[in-house]
Amino acid sequence: YRKAVDLAHRLHGDHSLAAFTPQIRLADALHSADSDDAAVGVLAQARDTLDFNHDDDAYRRAQLADQFGQYYATRDLPKALDYARTSVELYDRAHATFDLGFALSRKARAEHQSGLDNDAIASYERAIDVSRAADGAANPDLVRYYAELGEVRYFHLDIAGGEGDARAAPQLAKTIHGEN
């Protein structure tokens, strides 16, 4: 992804919108590789790219907020939650259903870590609804959403709800992948 960013800069200039998507992909890869310090630098460049171009495209701004939320999730929880809320709002505005489900689950995690369990439960429930609408009733994302929702409900002392969600997760996995 770094080569794609460099190529976009070389062909279109340092603040070209053509570099934005490769920058977001690079930041995501850096998060996955536990290179968060490098990721935040790339995200700052991506933000500068959008600002330089006066670009307020909801989808691009949502992607940026989502990535910043992931970065701050282990560093500054209130900031992570603000970015998560912003990404959900912007993905919603952009009608980006696939990305909205993931953003809602990340928002739910930040809410749970902030002690906002009722908000987290509502976010997970919405993520489940969005995911079902986008990808059908038997999709792999639902397994994770139900498992995480079950944990929050257990933590919130909704034992019956947590147990129901905890059972739904492996049942869905079995439906998707079979007995293995």
Plain-language structure description:
- With 180 residues, the protein is mainly alpha-helical.
- The chain has 9 helices and no strands.
- It has helices at 2-12, 20-32, 36-52, 58-72, 77-94, 97-113, 117-135, 140-155, 159-177.
- Helix 7 runs antiparallel to helix 8 (140-155).
- The longest helix has 19 residues, at 117-135.
- The mean pLDDT is 91.
Question: Short summary of the structure?
Answer:
The protein has helices at 2-12, 20-32, 36-52, 58-72, 77-94, 97-113, 117-135, 140-155, 159-177. It is mostly helical.
Separate helix tally: 9
Rounded mean pLDDT score = 91
Structural class, from secondary structure content?
mainly alpha
Global geometry: elongated
Q: Unreliable runs, pLDDT <50, ≥5 residues?
A: none
Percentage of residues in helical conformation: over 70%
- Oligomer kind: single chain
| Alpha carbon gap, first and last residue | 35 Å
Q: How is the main sheet built?
A: none
SSE string, helix = H, strand = E? HHHHHHHHH
Beta-strand share of residues? under 5%
Can you count the beta strands?
Answer: 0
Evaluate the radius of gyration: 18 Å
